[in-house]
């Protein structure tokens, strides 16, 4: 993992098209801004985990429904 130190209003650039800017530092909170193309998905970690859990629940539920349908057809 690369670890960098930045001050307010300083940036980190990833490739040529993604910019991460430190917008504000207040106490133990850091606000960052992310400029990225629309085809790049950006999520907070906790939001991504929630989305993945919901997706897993849906897949399991769909799989169970498919199993019941197949059993009913046999």
Strand content: 25-35%
| Strand line-up across the major sheet | 1-2-3
Biggest pleated-sheet summary: 3 strands, antiparallel
- Please count the helical segments: 1
Low-confidence stretches: none
The figure for the number of domains is 2
Mean pLDDT: 88
Short descriptors:
alpha+beta, 1 helix, 3-stranded antiparallel β-sheet
What can you see in these coordinates?
With 74 residues, the chain is α+β, with helices and mostly antiparallel strands. It folds into two domains: 35 residues, no CATH class; 32 residues. Helices cover 39% and strands 27% of the residues. Strands 1-2-3 form a three-stranded antiparallel sheet, with no helix packed on it. The longest helix has 29 residues. The chain is elongated.
SSE blueprint:
Elements: E1 11-14, E2 18-26, E3 29-35, H1 45-73
Question: What is this structure, in a nutshell?
Answer:
With 74 residues, the chain is of the alpha+beta class.
């Amino acid at each position: 993992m690369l670890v960098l130190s930045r001050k307010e209003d300083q940036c980190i650039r990833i490739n040529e098209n993604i910019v991460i800017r430190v917008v504000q530092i207040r106490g133990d909170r850091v606000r960052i801004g992310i400029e990225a193309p629309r085809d790049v998905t950006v999520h907070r970690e906790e939001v991504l985990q929630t989305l993945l859990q919901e997706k897993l629940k849906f897949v399991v539920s769909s799989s169970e429904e498919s199993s019941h349908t197949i059993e009913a057809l046999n």
